[in-house]
Amino acid sequence: MAIHPFHLSFAVDDLERAKRFYGEVLQCRVRHEDEHSIDFDFFGHVVSARLADGGSVSSARSGGESGSLWSFGVCLDSERWDALTAVVSRAGVALGEPPSVSPDRLMLRDPAGNTLEFILGRGRSAPVAANDEAIGMTIDPAAIGATLTAVTMGIDAFERSRPRGTSLLDGEGLVPIYMGTDLVPARRYASWDEVQEDLAALESSVGQVPDGTRAVFLRGMLTSLKVAVRLFAGASPSFEEKVRDLVGAPIGPVDPAVIEDIRGRLDSLLRRQGAVRGDLGERIKAWEEGRFVDPERLEATFSELLAQAKARTDARIIDTGDYEMALNPVRDMPFTARCNFNQGQMDLNVDQRFTRSALKHLVCHEVHPGHVTQLLYTWAEVEAGRSDADALLCTANTVTGCVQEGIGDQAVQLIDWIEDEDDEIHLELRRLRSAAQTSAAWHLMVDGWPADRVAEYLRRTAFGQEAWIQGRLRMAAHPFRGPFIASYWAGNESVRRVRERVPASQRPAFLTYLYGQVHSPESLEMFSPATP
Asked: Has UniProt tagged this entry with the keyword Oxidoreductase (predicted)?
């Protein structure tokens, strides 16, 4: 049913304050203004803030009689509700008097004391698209971003609420690290059917977003979320579907010719250092063992590398402020390292040994300019209103994870920190292992290779330590995390391809595009300096 816009006039005592509140805080477009009044677009309607006679609103109360000042508002669908609550959260002290917020009602006062009341519509059908069309407006991508974020965090919260042992992610959640609780709160769900309804409504709205990088990302993200919800609800999508649609990575093993090319470069680099005796695996083993950091020096080396990584990140990407991270040694984990952002720790699996170059890579990947930098950057952009709210989903176990891992694996290059041939060798070795683990997971989960054969493939092809090999097998077999093994290779290659084609003059624009919003690999590779 079409809606008919209303027009409402109300009194204010200061037009400039009214303009800041309605125009800047609530982001209502100014339609007309003169010395006596300002007309605003107000959620598809028109409201006029008129200067009260004598500049005092006391003589301009509702109906011209004594009593309360004007009180008005609108009922909002879920998308606009999420967008509004995000805007109000960001506004903070600019509101003056704190708003009153409940799950389905928000009340606040303008600077003149007029009360605005917003009510969340009971239906989940999100009629915003039909309404906008009826009154000649276009879909609001920022509102879609806020709703996408609220829905995604609602999925995260609902999955985390399941009893221990029945959750696929055992409490880790769909979004392991989220800094936007005060900006965009999570939707509340009681069933996966409710989630599916909201995803369907979002898909309808996303279908109206104009073609471009934004539409490509939103479509990929929705596809990813739908697969995640099916998994959480008990379905069993194929490994191929999970790699393609949940992760956003190419299906299949990495081309063996690509792997051989990387091995050839490693061979050449080692020969340049005089390592010529033995086969490639023997030479790599000797090279690593001769450079392993003494376990007693691990924490000191970590601190030294972190200080340098932070300084280079601050100079080249963003001032990371006073955030600190400590080393936390762990054992018997399927991962090599993990960013434990909320605890201020980088978990490091000390069942493995690390060269200085390997530790440098992990510091850059997990901290600066990798995961921690991306979290700080996206939060600052959303909080300042420069990025849509879904930038806060940079750590989600969805298509955004590909680019997150790509930033991490390209982190040393992003801050121009290749110091010597040891760094060059490690970067090729890391790329080799990323490609090999992607192929190994495919062979295990799709081709039906037994675990022993896959382990031998990793030993022979990637020359990994045994703790790393066993960790890869554990991860690959996990029904949700397994396909994300492919995110490292796919993400690294996407970020690398764009980074290598961007000239120095366009580097700042690329970094803003890379860090300031979230991407799928497909939307990332659409980068150009003129990309909206």
From this structure: yes
